[in-house]
Amino acid sequence: MTQYNRPTQGRAASSRFGSLENERPAQGRPAQQGQRQQPPRRPSNPPRQGGGVPSRGPAGPSSGALPRGFLPLVGACALIIVAGLLLQGWMPNGFMLTGIEDRAERPVAAQVSEIHGEGPIRLNEIMSANGGVLVDDNGQTPDWVEVANISSRPVNLRGYVLAKNAKAGNVFVFPDLVLEAGQGLVVYADSTLQDEDGSAELHAPFRLSSGGDVLMLFNDADVAVDTVNIPALSENTAYVRVDRDHWSVSEQPTPGMLNTEENYRALTSVVQNSPVQLAEIVASNSKLRPDGSGVVYDYVMLRNTSADVMDIGGWYLSDTPRLPRLWKFPQGVTIPGGGTLVVYCSGLNRLEDAGHLHTSFRLSSEGETLTLSNAQGQPVDSATYDLLHTDEAYVRGSDGSWSVDTPAAEQ
Predict the structure, then answer these.
(1) pTM listed for this prediction
(2) Distance (Å, rounded) from C-alpha 204 to C-alpha 126?
């Protein structure tokens, strides 16, 4: 397997990525001193006066002569072609060739021989058009890349590198972070660099193109160990690794987990007996439970049925069943034992005040399905309601059944 050295973060691309700045075609050699000039040859059979062959003046070019400057031009073109081939050979798979653009004036990705994962860490899953499959701590839905530890032992990712090309702005260096055996790790690709704390989310300083892109993984010894040529992907569709040498487009993403049918079912099947449950839904609110600014919004109320404080930071709430991770609770949000928490479904996506949270989506009074998921993205509860009139509530009874009733705020 050909080894490629990784680009140096913070520096200009080294000569291994090719540079034509100092290359120029060689100049023609001057005639040697003392070399005698040959006089022009006289035609042996000069044309007759009035014949059909035009006469040639002494300054005209001879028959078959090349235009002046033709040979240097051919030499320069040959040099450029050879240099381009060398650049493509030096360029790791997927690295962008600087200065080459397509008709849409976007960089064109170089496609070269792929490197397939050889070490314990490999590229595992990619989403370049995230429409709500995964939400970060800021409530945004950036594109993401997943690496996975396929070995049977923990691996420290410190010094591993994700790179799109040799530019420092397209390089992400992993922090001191241990990835357990069989575990996946998501890196958000949103052009914001966040890698100082291994316990926090990881954000790379580059984005991915939904029209197709390239990515490369280096290990801590600066050796390229994996590459992928990402095809064009539609919204919420993932590019997943099937085995060592093959990838496929999938509508069953498993962020943070290995790409198996079992893991997908685990992410989409409702976990039973969660102490935190959906308790009340008001989808046409005119006066109930105003938020901190005194404005009323539609809302969902959660209830903690246990006697212990429940930390739901990193959990999810969604009104779209196929996107259970549509909105994410910020870290540090808790519900006391036997207590409740109201979440306003305003579409404002306000996360600053843990006591007055606002989701990124709104409720429809004509009916929807709400899903509550844990921090692993597994649904723990769901409720489907039909038409709700103004200030009506869909209420969960003590036996777990649902019915349209008077909101708890008015009881």
Answers:
(1) 0.60
(2) 13
